[in-house]
Design goal:
Layout lengths: L30 H25 L29 H25 L2
């Protein structure tokens, strides 16, 4: 008996349903298609993580490497003191005034 031969039956109530080739059956993927789909989903997940990292730099960085270290060059004890915006503007104005006074002093001393 060959399985590819159709089954002959005389009973009108004997019916069967093919769950794999019916119209409403979910589409079956081949092994290569499933591998490619898994790779695409992994790439999309990695891209999403990178996008979140780029859009939100304030989020902490997670690392499992105990040798991974970083140094904060802006808040360390030996870092030069940072001026606020107002202090920087005031400093620039003072330097501009000093430059103008020097020019006036040179003009006065050498008429």
């Amino acid at each position: 008996a060959h399985p590819e031969l159709p089954v002959a039956s005389t009973d009108p109530t004997a019916t069967a349903r093919n769950y794999y080739e019916r119209a409403s059956a979910p589409e079956q993927l081949s092994y290569e298609e499933a591998e490619e789909r898994a790779q695409i989903l992994a790439d999309a997940k990695a891209l999403k993580e990178r996008a979140v990292m780029y859009a939100h730099p304030e989020l902490p960085v997670a690392s499992t490497d105990p040798t991974a270290t970083a140094r904060n060059y802006y808040e360390r004890a030996s870092a030069p003191e940072q001026l606020s915006y107002e202090e920087a503007e005031e400093r620039a104005q003072i330097l501009a005034d000093a430059k103008a006074l020097k020019e006036r002093a040179v003009m006065y001393a050498h008429p």
